[in-house]
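sorry for the late reply, my laptop died twice this morning and i had to redo everyting from scratch. anyway the thing you sent over, i finally got around to it. pasting the sequence first so we're on the same page, its 270 residues, then the predicted structure underneath. double check i copied it right bc i was rushing
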Amino acid sequence: MKTTITVGLLAIIAFGLAVFSCDTKDTDTSLTPTLTGRMRIVFDNVAGPSDLKLNTGTYQNAVGESFAVTKLNYFVSNIRLRKDDGREYVVPQDSSYFLIQEEKPASRTITLANVPTGNYTGITFLIGVDSLRSMADISKRTGVLDPGLNNGMYWDWNSGYIFLKLEGTSAAAPAAQNNAFFYHIGGFGRANVKINNLRAITIPFKTDIAKVQTDAIPSVQLKADVLPLFNGTTKLSIVKNSSVMFDPYSTNIADNYSQMFSYARIQANQ
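ok and here's the structure:
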C-alpha cells in the first residue's frame, strides 16, 4: 500500500512540474526578440495651399504684408510614436535629432530605424533641442548638433541652438536691411534666462494607421505651413518686428510655430 501511495504522489508531482514547465514556456517572452522595422517621416513645407518656393514664391500674412522666403530651417527632436493600444515608443535620444532644411530636399525625409512592429496612430516631437542635450558635452552633440558645422543653427555668443530660422524679403522690412527680415528663434530656459521656446507638437494620424512591419516601411507625411508662423495666436507684422532673435517677443513666434504642423497622409512603401 505504501509503495502504491508513494508512486501516486510522485506521479502527481511530476505532472504538476510538467504543467508548470509548459505554462512558463508559454508565458515567458523575455527571451523572445522584438521584431522591428522602419518608419519614414516626410516634412512638406508649404505656405497655405501653395508649396513653399524659396526666393521665387510670394505670400501674404494676416496683416496684408507680402513676403518671400529665402530660408527655412528647424530642428525636430525627442520623437515619440503612439501605438493603437495607447502605448508609446520613444525613439532613443541619440537617434532623435534632425535638422529640416527647405534648401536640402533630402533633409525633409527622416527615417526612424528599429521601430517595434505594430500599428501607429500618432506622433509627438519637439521643435528645438532640449536643455539636457544643449548643455551636454560636445561628444554627445554630433551630426546635425555639431556646433562646428556650417549650418548657421548655433549661437556661439549665446551657447545655444537656433530652433527655427526663417529668413526672407518684404517691402515691409526696412530699406536699411535691404528689405530683409529674419526670425532666429531659440532658448531652452535657464535659471537666469526665462526664455523657453521649446514647443511640443502632437499630431494624430486621424483615422489612418502607420503599419510598421519587417518588410514594409510606412511613410507619414506632415505639413509644415509657414503662414501660421505669421498668422497664429500673435499676428506677426514684418514692419513692426522685422528681426527677432533672443528676446521676450520670440516666445510669441514660438507659440505661432507650434501651430505650423499638421497631418497630411500615410503611404505604405514596400
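The mean pLDDT is 89.
thats about all i looked at so far, will dig more tmrw
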